[in-house]
Specification:
By secondary structure, this protein is mainly alpha-helical. About 80% of the residues lie in helices and about 0% in strands.
């Protein structure tokens, strides 16, 4: 064995230790949650079990069912239209259908409350047009309801399904669909009998992501008075001052999360299809004209209008009335707090993701793969659940350190972690590590292992191989991961509300508090700032989407040229 290989293997063990530390960061809040839930809740658990939990479970199930159906219908139909059909504006809708991802659920809820409430522009226009003088003169649907929550959440969560379904449609072989066409199947039968079954695994992934975001939401359900499990945890902790009871509800919520994950994995496992081998080219699109083209344009334009144009326009209009907020110290402080927390957390997250993926690359053992899976479950855990699990261990550490410092040095440190925002960084890291992990892992997979072997034969240790070989090649991937996790941290609301230090506001909490006291104009500018920041990764996704279409078009043109040349020959 060469002398250069042994140091690398010695270093491997250090990287493996770092990988398990990364996994422990995600696992510790869940263990803490279980311990806390097993403690005494002062008899409240019996009350929660008989009165709160059944209603919360039912409401949560109905909300998830409604959001799942609505996002599937919208995401799959629009993905099919922009992928398999050609109509005016198709290129615009290709990326515009992603834009609602920039709008968090709690912000679109605020916007639609403003638009559709009694004093809003829609009902005011109805009263003006028909001469009504009061709400008793006409019927209008109640937005602050379960149906309203389903509507606003679906309007911004359908892009998860659109992205995965569209990618699946693009990857389907033209041969499979063309066989169905030659057998006389029309567009609808090709979609329903061939393309849709082939795309079920991808659609299941997109729907599960949308439902995870639905479970995590606390802003929209609070504004609309929808008592989901998330709302019940928040209410039990803050309003009833019972942390153990909140932990027990959080454990019940975790059961729902893992059932959802199990169903998603089961759906994918039962739907495995092999595409035909050989040179792939995109399916031949259907060209729409007349009323069909108009219907396709309307079907694609409506989700964009409802999910982005309406809320963004309202926020821009309300923000224009309060431009003095741009110099308001409270707004500037909230902006600074959000930015600083997001920068620190995104750097920590991406660093841990690199450590975790690189450790698995160095030694692909079952234990390290388990560590990677543990680290990846954080995204499935709602922010409220993480907050409950993080609070106790950090509080005990703070109190223990404070007691030691007082005894040894005569002065205390107070709440060093929870009081400094470190608890928020921890919560963001545990929740969004999976996001960066997926991107970094994909980047490492594209680097040939032969580069590692060549570096080892030259005597490079594992750390130097990472610094000199991998990181330079991974710069675009790391920047993308940093950007996406930065935006996710900026938007995160549930964990921020529950773990922020006293008198510490971010843009998300500023929006939530202003909306809670019905001061919508005060919430408009910080909400618009969050939306504008969220547009950045959406633009990156749109550019990736455009490249995918160009590659598909090039492949189709090449295949057509090859067929023509073969025919002439």
């Amino acid at each position: 064995m060469s002398a250069g290989v042994m140091p690398a293997r010695t270093g491997d063990r250090l990287w493996q230790g770092f990988a398990w530390i990364a996994a422990a960061i995600v696992l510790m809040p869940l263990i803490s949650l279980g311990v806390l839930a097993s403690g005494s809740s002062d008899g409240v658990w019996g009350h929660l079990l008989t009165t709160v939990l059944p209603g919360s479970l039912k409401t949560t199930f109905l909300l998830m069912l409604g959001v799942g159906l609505a996002t599937t219908l919208t995401g799959v139909s629009t993905a099919w239209l922009v992928t398999m059909c050609r109509f005016p504006g198709r290129g615009l809708f290709d990326w515009a259908l992603l834009v609602p991802l920039a709008v968090p659920t709690y912000i679109i809820a605020i916007a639609y409350v403003e638009v559709l409430q009694y004093s809003g522009p829609v009902q005011s226009a109805i009263r003006s047009a028909f001469g009504f003088t009061s709400a008793r003169d006409y019927w209008f649907p109640e937005l602050r309801s379960l149906g309203g929550a389903i509507f606003v959440m679906s309007a911004v969560l359908y892009p998860y399904v659109y992205l995965t379904a569209r990618a699946s449609f693009l990857l389907q072989s033209a041969g499979t669909l063309d066989v169905a066409r030659t057998l006389g199947a029309g567009p609808f039968r090709v979609f329903a009998r061939v393309a849709l079954p082939l795309s079920r695994p991808a659609i299941a992934v997109g729907v599960s992501l949308a439902l995870m975001e639905c479970l995590n939401d606390i802003g929209a359900v609070t504004f609309f008075g929808v008592k989901t499990l998330t709302f019940s945890i928040y209410d039990t902790w803050l309003n009833r001052s019972n942390l153990a009871g909140a932990a027990q509800l959080a454990c019940a919520m975790l059961v729902v999360v893992f059932v959802l994950l199990t169903l998603e994995r089961h759906a994918r496992a039962r739907q495995r299809f092999d595409q035909a081998r050989g040179k792939h080219h995109a399916p031949t699109p259907y060209r729409l004209s007349g009323w069909r083209a108009g219907a396709a344009m309307l079907a694609c334009a409506l989700p964009v209008f409802l999910g982005f144009v309406v809320p963004a326009s309202l926020l821009a209009e309300r923000s224009s009335r309060r431009l003095e907020q741009l110099t308001d110290p409270a707004f500037l402080k909230a902006m600074g707090n959000s930015t600083l927390l997001a920068i620190i957390a995104s750097l920590v997250i991406v660093t841990l993701a690199v450590v975790l993926v690189y450790a698995v690359r160095l030694r692909k053992s079952g234990g390290l793969r388990l560590a990677a899976r543990i680290a990846a479950i954080g995204y499935a855990v709602p922010g409220t659940v993480l907050a409950v699990g993080i609070l106790i261990p950090l509080a005990r550490f703070d109190n223990g350190l404070d007691a030691v410092m007082k005894q040894v040095f005569g002065f205390g440190t107070g709440l060093l972690l929870l009081g400094s925002g470190a608890g928020l960084v921890y919560a963001y890291t545990a929740r969004f590590l999976a996001v960066a992990h997926g991107q970094v892992e994909d980047g490492f997979n594209k680097i040939s292992p032969h580069l590692d072997m060549a570096a080892q034969t030259l005597g490079r240790r594992a750390t130097r191989i990472l610094a000199e070989v991998h990181l330079p090649l991974l710069k675009p991937v790391l920047l993308s991961a940093l950007l996406i996790t930065f935006v996710d941290c900026m938007k995160e609301l549930p964990a921020t509300i529950l773990l922020r230090p006293f008198n510490f506001d971010t843009l998300a909490t500023t929006v939530f508090e202003a909306a809670s006291r019905e001061a919508f104009e005060d919430a408009a500018l910080p909400a618009l700032a969050i939306v504008l920041v969220g547009l950045v990764p959406v633009i990156l996704l749109a550019r990736t989407s455009a490249r995918t279409y160009r590659d598909a078009a090039t492949s189709r043109k090449s295949a057509s040229t090859d067929q023509t040349a073969a025919g002439r020959a």
